[in-house]
Amino acid sequence: MKKSTIVLSASMVLAAGCIDGPTVTNENQPTVDALKGALTSAGVQTLSLGVLVSDRTLVSAFNYLIQPEIFARDAYRIDSNEPRYVTETLGGTPDPGSFSGGQGGFGAGYTMVRAAISLQDALPGADKASITDAQRLTTAGLIRTMKALEYYRLLETRDTIGVAILTSDPAFVPPLSCKKNVLDQIAAVLDSANTDLVAAGAGTLPFSPPTGFTAYGRDYSTASNLILLNRGLKGKVDVYRGLQHQSPTAGAFTAAIAELTQALGGKAAGAVSPSTFSNGAYVTFVAGGTENTPNPLADSKIGVNPKAQAALQAGDTRATKIIPRGMLAGSGLSTTFTYVGSTVTPGNQVRPNAILRDEEIVLLRAQAYFEAGQFANGAADLNSVRTSYGLAAIAVPGDITTARNALLYEKRYSLFFEGPQRLVDLRAYGLLKAGITTPELPNDPFNTALPIPKGEADARGNVLTISCQ
Length: 469
Prior knowledge:
By secondary structure, this protein is mainly α. Helices cover 42% and strands 10% of the residues. The protein has 16 helices and ten strands.
C-alpha cells in the first residue's frame, strides 16, 4: 500500500460535498427514512427518481459541462460581471472556496451517491407483493449503474486529485482515494450492477423512468437494455484504466473491446449504422415551473474558442455545431463564434445531454482497438463515424501516434460540448500543455482539474491522505 499525503492551504486544492451537515430537507429528493415500512413500487419510484434528479443537478452545474470545456480549449465564458470564469480557468488557478471549488456539481454528486446507497440497502426488503424479484433486480442494476456513473463524473473533473468513496455509514468521513483505486471501484460497481441485470432476465423497472431513458432510440426500463448502457460505461472506464500513466490495468483494452462490442449489440468493427449514433440514455432538462433546471449551455455568455473552429477540417458537417455570434470579449479573450446550443431559446434550455450514446461507444471502441494494436479494426470504427460527416476515410494508421491524432479529432467534434471527454483525453495522452503551443492568456496555468471543495479539506484538518495500492 502506497500513501501520498497532500497538505492543502487555502490557496491550493481543497473541497466539500461528501460531508453530511445540517441542511434543509429537499422534498424532491426524499430519503429512505422518509418512506415508512417496506418499500412498495411507489416508494421505489420516488427514491429512484430522486437519484436521477441528483445526477441532473450535477450535470447542470457550471463546473461539469462548461468549465472542463474551457480547460480543454473548446469554450470561453466571458462575463464582465463575473471575471472568475476567466481568472479561475485560463487566467489563473481555481479557488477551492470559490465557485470552481464550491459545492456545485461536487455536492450534487455525493447527494446522488448517498441516495443511491440508501436505496440499494433498502431494496432487499422491498414488499414482494408490490415488486417482483425481477423488478427489484432491475432497479438494483439501474441504481448501481448510476452510482458508478456519478463517481466517474466526479473523477472526470478531479482526476489525480482523487475523490472519496462513500460507505453505508453516513457518519463516516472517508479519505480521498487515488484515481486508480476510484476507477477500480467504479469498474467493480458496474460489474455488480451487471450481475443484478443479468439475473433479472426479462425484468423491467417497476416505474416509468424519465424520458431521457426511453425516448432516444432505446428503452432503458428493461434489464436487457440497461445491460447495454452498463457495458458501454464499463468499456469506457476500462479504456481509461488502460491509459493510467503509472499503473495501467493489464488487459483493460481487450476487456473494453468486448464490453463495448456487447453495448453495440455485438456489431463488428465498422458495422454500426450512423442511423443509430444518437441512440442512448440522456439527461433531460426542465425550463420553468417548480423544477427549473435548464441546460446550462443555453447561455449567451458562452462562446466557442476560435481555435476550435479553426481546427475543423474542410467539409466536416459537424461544423454546424459552431455558429457565428456577435463579438464576445473581455478579460483578454474574444470570439465571434458560439455553440449552436448556447443561443438562449426554449429549445436549447431543454436540449438533452447524452449520458452515453452509440456514437461515443463506437469511438471508444476505436480508441481501445488502437491502444490494443488492432489498427485496422480501429480505423473501421473511426471511419464509420468520420465518413458519416462528409469526410474521406483515413488509411489504416501505421503507428499509434497517427492513430491517436485521428481518434482525438473525431472525438472532439462528435462529442463537442457534450461533457468533459475532450479534457479527459488530453490529460490521458499528456497533451493538454504539450499539444498547445500558444497559451490563451499570459498567465495561463494549463489547469487540468477542479479543486476539491474547501469544506472537504476543512473536515480533514486540511490534510488529505490519498491511498493507492
